[in-house]
Amino acid sequence: MKLLKLLSVAALSAASMMANAAGVDTLSGLLKNVETFTANFTQTMRSQSGQVMQEVTGTLKAKRPGLFYWKTKAPLEQTIVTDGQQVWIYDPDLEQVTIQHLSQQLSNTPALLLSGEVGKIDEQYQVEEQPESQPGQVDFLLRPKGVDSLFDTLQLSFVNDQLVSMKLKDSLGQQTSLFFTGVSVNQTISEKAFHFEIPDGVDVIREAP
Fold first, then answer.
1. Tag placement on the chain: N or C end, fewer CB within 10 Å?
2. In the chain, what are the domains?
3. Any residues with CB less than 8 A from the CB of 110 and at least 6 apart, and which?
4. For the whole model, what pTM was predicted?
5. What is the maximum alpha-carbon separation in the chain?
6. What is the dihedral angle through the alpha carbons of 79, 102, 179, 42, rounded to the nearest 10 degrees?
7. What share of the chain is helix, strand, coil (3-state, %, to 5)?
């Protein structure tokens, strides 16, 4: 009986590894085709019970390797820009800009999958391709391998090979959903778009690496 249990566990483990490898290959293939990405987004945060806690809209731009721009509109206005080395976080209401080194934890932020190194997805995440939820849609469930991750699970959804949403859950059971509209892929974006000009008169906080 012990031998049968060991064999069954080994078989399930092998199947899981094969599924993960297949999911990684498929997801990597979809993301590798995206050199630049621009879109409008709606971000909604819900509590464990499903109650809407926060909703914002905004725009984002991403360009490989490592360039990212994110701006939310009022009343929760914020701009986040990275040139692949450092990150500028601008809060107009606080009249404050925080400048950080792009640490490993920040690089694991879900939206940065659009600008990061696709070949390293399997180093950071366990990837499972999900059963088709609706015709033409492909879903992937990602579980971070790092113990200090900002979330527990992340679902990426594609329709006609185009990313349409991201949904992540944290350890408190809260879910944050990002839905993309007006998506444009592989259009020319100047690198100047990923360098933040600090407004006059704001406080600047520089955080050490």
1. N
2. 2-206 (2.50.20.10)
3. 151, 154, 166, 168, 178
4. 0.80
5. 73
6. -20
7. 25, 45, 30
